[in-house]
Amino acid sequence: MDGLIFKAPLLGPRPPLAERAMIGIVAPATNITVQPEMEVLRPPGVCNQHARIANPHRAIAGNMDTLAARQIMLEGLDAAIDSLLPCGPDHIALGVMVENFAGGGAAGQALLEGIRKRTGLGVSDWSSAMLAALRALGGQKRVAIITPFMPVGDAAAKLFFEETGHKVTAVVGLKAPSPCDVGRITVERQIEALRALDATGPEVIVQAGTNLAFGQLAVEAERWLGKPVIAANTVIYWHALRSLGLADVLPAAGRLGLVG
């Protein structure tokens, strides 16, 4: 559709399950992690509504397969967002990493601005949320990154931080063989990656890839590493709440859940 999509006004009082806010969340069809991780973070009076980007379960053997999967998700993004609008969300949370399928920099920002203009809603995405979180936690510049991606996805994450003035001490990509398999990467492999990243001396460790089940581990890792560890789904949802003016303490968000 062209222009602003029709969004019916809410009639009467707020919905009983969304007295404070309704967040529309978009994730790929293969993603099994965004919905449960964001639901754990949901404060009282906030309702989450979910839509899926149609993307098939397919093998990812290398960078070319990654690029093909990116294009499929990009083509399905608008349709997924459109399916959310009739329920009247107050904000959109993108449970995907825009840089990993649309490109970073101007291309990614153009995509986000297009969503805002078409829907008339605020949008929380991984990149904006990460930068806001780093500012809120003290402005750390030395960053290490854990991803579930092939090298082309790792490069997108690394480039994003470098272009925003950060020093990337290391990237560990776990090379999931398909989008579905991202959600099945074991905690043991993730802990091994965290130890390797910490040895490079970062001030903060961040996660890319919203299907990697990392939220709970990030909170635990902050205790034994003694530094912020920022999970992808946690930071996107935190950004959505703060964008809506909701400053609730979020126990499942670790250090980030304590800041506005």
Describe the structure.
By secondary structure, the chain is of the alpha/beta class. It has 2 domains: 16-126 and 234-258, 3-Layer(aba) Sandwich (Rossmann fold), CATH 3.40.50.12500; 128-230, Rossmann fold (3-Layer(aba) Sandwich). 42% of the residues lie in helices and 16% in strands. It is built from 9 helices and 8 strands. It has helices at residues 34-41, 63-84, 105-119, 126-136, 151-163, 179-182, 187-198, 215-225, 232-243, and strands at 21-28, 46-53, 91-94, 122-124, 142-147, 167-173, 204-207, 229-230. It has a 4-stranded parallel sheet with strand order 2-1-3-4, with helices on both faces. A 4-stranded parallel sheet has the order 6-5-7-8, sandwiched between helices. α4 (126-136) packs across α9 (232-243). The longest helix is centred in the first third of the chain and has 22 residues, at 63-84. The protein is globular, with a radius of gyration of 17 Å. The chain starts with 20 loop residues before the first strand and ends in a 17-residue tail after the last helix.
